[in-house]
Design a protein that fits this description.
The structure holds two protein chains of two kinds.
Chain A: H1 2-11, H2 16-55, H3 66-103, H4 109-121, H5 124-150, H6 167-190, H7 195-203, H8 208-219, H9 221-237, H10 240-245, H11 265-272, H12 279-310
Helix pairs in contact in A: 2-12, 3-6, 3-9, 3-12, 4-6, 5-6, 6-9, 7-8, 9-12, 11-12
Chain B: H1 4-25, H2 31-35, H3 49-96, H4 102-106, H5 120-151, H6 154-167, H7 172-187, H8 194-218, H9 222-230, H10 235-262, H11 267-272, H12 291-300, H13 307-338
Helix pairs in contact in B: 1-3, 3-13, 5-8, 5-10, 5-12, 7-8, 8-10, 9-10, 10-13, 12-13
The chains are: A mainly alpha, B mainly alpha.
């Protein structure tokens, strides 16, 4: 008897079960909304704490020339480091993704992608230590060669750093760090390339590379773009590796192999924050707000591209 | 070209079917079009095979050499990507072993100027800060995933899905600034607390938990839910008693991987929990040390002479890597051992 009423109670409002369902659904929805609230809170709290610096007199901002002049070299350094990282990481990541999806033996493909994911699991502080202890010193020969042979380019003007703590090396380390995310995004789409297209290309006599060029790469093009943008977002916001590795002087320069480099926003915040007080803290938070806004826009664009693609 | 051949040998087994097909198909008529970039069926048939043979052979050769070349490049790229991983692991292990001793795990840095000392306080701090962050992030993350998978519909669901994805890309330093700004607004600008670090880390952790949990809930068979409904079980009990237990191993795996992702975070903790050299186990009172910040601080501001500080930094790095690797391995073992219902 009670069982019958219970069953009919499912679809109808009212009844004791309805309460449990309502509470649980409310909790779940609340957790979802909380995420939106947190994201809004990040923007809101940063804006509140950055406001004193935004409205302050130009002379009171560190450097004495206003907030824009304060943030500009940092933003420039951030862009340069991220650009180097992207230039290194994107071709590498596409090649690695192709290797895992189309060249490696099927049986070990999963293990290989797990190994690449390990690159993302390593804490960024350790990348910084590795960069300063291994990659930097190892790169001095290359930096000297660049200065000697490509010194006519503004990027390799020199004088080459003797420690390797340069923008070029920092960008390279960032490139290694963002490689896994680009690889993961592109690989998952490469493996979804319709079999009929691939087999059709092979049946027409294409070699494996011709098949990839004609089917897999066009199919994965938007994944490469969005994966690169996600990687760019990571590279822009990456903090500790740059903070510990880069030797900073603060000026704006295109010289990538010298020992006087512009810092990045994230690294500058991490290094200066512990010793700052008063308006300096607000100025740092304003810099953080800029970083947040830029990475938010890039991530939203990247996700929009991925989502549009998924609907096909 | 000669150096290409030995390198491509391992992959040649796979390339053979494709190559063989290409040779077989392209006997006579298809040769000419293939010289172009694209196959164009409208072109007239090629001249007889005999006249074209040397030319065709040259084209064929070039195509296959290109194919081999790409295989070599792609394989090389993969090996090159492994080089930093191997070099990094080797460096951390070889440099970290010097101080990877009992003292390192049982002594804090209180009163230590040069030699000796350890990361006891930092390890405690790491466990407390990360533990609190996990306590906050897991319920929110799992409930959010339940909303997205079991209840969500319409624009709210789409908005949350989108912003969870966007949130995974928030720079960790911004999460730290957020926690600092939120607490500083109420408690004053000089505030440094362990719990602030937990808040920052949970902001980074929640989206990862949501993503992995949602993935796991999605692969719970619909038939299980329908069977439960057919027995008259209300929806919330179906979720808590049928869906969640089925997906439990996967959810635990996801949580462990997300802990591994945040346990090595440095930047947000540097600005929220500060630097501290003694043991502090109260996250609501004063500064707290953490392993990653410990490593950073020992390297950035070493004592005199600097070597003991550097050795401590590398030992902390080794400890972190071991924790991260252990979490990764255990997570996969859990999934393999207990996640069988889903496969």
């Amino acid at each position: 008897m009670s069982a019958i009423t219970d069953i009919t109670g499912i679809g109808h409002p009212g009844g004791s079960r309805r309460l449990g369902d309502r509470v649980f659904q409310g909790l779940a929805t609340g957790a979802g909304v909380l995420i939106l609230v947190v994201l809004a809170g990040v923007a809101g709290f940063l804006l509140i704490e950055a406001w004193p610096a935004i409205t302050a007199n130009a002379a009171d901002i560190p450097g004495g020339e206003g907030l824009v002049k304060y943030i500009w070299p940092l933003a420039f350094g951030t862009l340069v480091a991220a650009t180097i990282a992207i230039i290194f990481a994107v071709p590498m990541a596409v090649a690695v993704a192709l290797f895992i999806s189309h060249f490696a033996p099927r049986r070990i493909a999963n293990v290989l992608s797990y190994v690449i994911d390990l690159l993302a699991a390593i804490p960024s502080i350790i990348y910084g230590l590795w960069g300063i202890a291994v990659l930097g010193p190892a790169s001095t020969g290359v930096l000297n060669w660049l200065e000697g042979n490509l010194g006519f380019l503004p990027f390799f003007e020199g004088p080459a750093s003797s420690t390797g703590r340069t923008m070029l090396v920092a960008g390279l380390v960032l490139g290694v760090m963002i490689l896994p995310i680009i690889t993961a995004v592109t690989r998952s789409v490469f493996t979804q390339t319709p079999r009929r297209l691939q087999e059709g290309a092979l049946a027409l006599g294409a070699t494996r590379w011709e098949m990839i060029r004609m089917t897999v790469l066009p199919f994965g093009r938007s994944a490469i773009i969005s994966g690169s943008m996600l990687g760019l977002g990571r590279a822009l916001g990456e903090t500790m590796a740059v903070a510990i590795l880069l030797s900073v002087s603060g000026g704006v320069t295109f010289n990538l192999i010298g020992s006087g480099n512009p810092s990045t926003i994230a690294a500058h915040i991490a290094l200066d924050f512990p010793e700052s007080s008063g308006l300096d803290v607000n100025a740092l938070i304003a810099a953080g707000l800029v970083l947040f806004a830029v990475t938010l826009v890039i991530n939203m664009a990247a996700r929009a591209i991925i989502n549009r693609e998924v609907r096909y | 070209m000669p150096e290409d051949d030995p390198m491509s040998a391992p992959t040649s087994r796979e390339s053979q079917p494709a190559g063989a097909q290409g040779d077989g198909n392209g006997a006579a008529p298809e040769q000419a079009p293939l010289t172009g970039r694209r196959f164009e069926p409208s072109q007239p048939p090629a001249p007889p095979a005999r006249a074209m043979a040397p030319f065709a052979r040259r084209v064929e050769r070039r195509r296959h050499v290109t194919d081999r070349g790409v295989a070599v490049i792609v394989t090389g790229a993969f090996l090159l990507a492994l080089a930093p991983l191997i070099s990094l692991l080797y460096t951390v292990v070889s440099k970290g072993m010097a101080r990877f001793d009992a003292e390192f795990f049982s002594v804090s840095m209180r009163g230590i100027i040069s030699e000796g000392g350890g990361a006891y306080h930092a390890i405690l701090g790491t466990l407390i800060i990360t533990g609190l962050a996990t306590l906050a992030a897991v319920p929110v993350g799992v409930m959010c995933a339940i909303y997205l998978q079991e209840y969500g519909a319409g624009r709210l669901k789409r908005a949350i899905t989108f912003f969870v994805d966007v949130m995974t890309g928030i720079p960790s330093i911004v999460a730290g600034l957020f926690a600092f700004a939120a607490f500083a607004l109420f408690l004053g600008p000089g505030i440094r607390l362990g719990v602030m670090g937990s808040v920052a880390l949970s902001v980074l952790m929640i989206p990862i938990v949501v993503r992995s949990t949602e993935e796991m809930l999605r692969i719970v068979p619909q038939a299980l839910r329908e069977a439960s409904y057919a027995l008259g079980v209300p929806k919330w009990k179906t979720i808590t008693k049928v869906v969640l237990p089925t997906a439990l191993a996967g959810i635990v795996t996801g949580v462990m991987l997300s802990v591994a992702r945040i346990i090595g975070e440095t930047a947000p903790l540097l600005i929220t929990t500060g630097v501290f050299s003694s043991v502090n186990v109260d996250p609501f009172d004063g500064r707290m040390q953490n392993l990653a910040v410990f490593a950073f601080n020992e390297y950035k501001s070493p004592g005199v002479p600097p070597e003991p500080s550097f050795e401590r930094a590398w030992a902390a790095a080794l400890t972190l890597i071991l924790i991260v690797m252990a979490l990764n391995v255990i997570a996969r073992l859990v999934y393999r051992r207990y996640g069988t219902e889903l496969r």
